[in-house]
Amino acid sequence: AQKITQTQPGMFVQEKEAVTLDCTYDTSDPSYGLFWYKQPSSGEMIFLIYQGSYDQQNATEGRYSLNFQKARKSANLVISASQLGDSAMYFCAMRERSNQGGKLIFGQGTELSVKP
Amino acid sequence: GEEVAQTPKHLVRGEGQKAKLYCAPIKGHSYVFWYQQVLKNEFKFLISFQNENVFDETGMPKERFSAKCLPNSPCSLEIQATKLEDSAVYFCASSQPPGAGNTIYFGEGSWLTVV
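Predict the joint structure of the above. Result:
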């Protein structure tokens, strides 16, 4: 069963507008972390934001915020005031505390294109 | 160091040749992970280490792939007798033990092309 699902293969957004990238997850582990990474065309993996399963508040990092809805098992990434440099692949990932070695499990990715 | 360092950045091998990739994790990180990414889509987990011990090798094609993390040496991922389908970007990542806020940091990846 897919543990991390990103249902949007591609998204477009106008420069300076906000965009939401969807991510749902499935786990029975009460302790887990959710991550978003950005992968530009150059290929490196850039950590954006982290949300712990016990965190009471939604995580924010600059223009990035994570809309964490635990009951719905969703962890959507919101990018405010999009910039051309935000065009990239975005991956949602989960790390379960009980999972041997705490490896990350990735979603399929969403390709974001920011239009000028 | 403050970043995960992977070498080489690019590697071209003829089918059947050996390929060896290296990774120096961030200083103080006890967990190392190897992932394979084909065509910028799916990340396939290969293997993880806790210090020099294999922690999880459920993703490794064991007949041709091997990996080590020895003390005072970079970690390595070796592919014997490469095949065309091994062409991919291989990412190494490191972290502290799983727990609140323990981000997994990635290296820039090693691009392997098998011709």
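The first strand of chain B starts at residue 5 and ends at 7.
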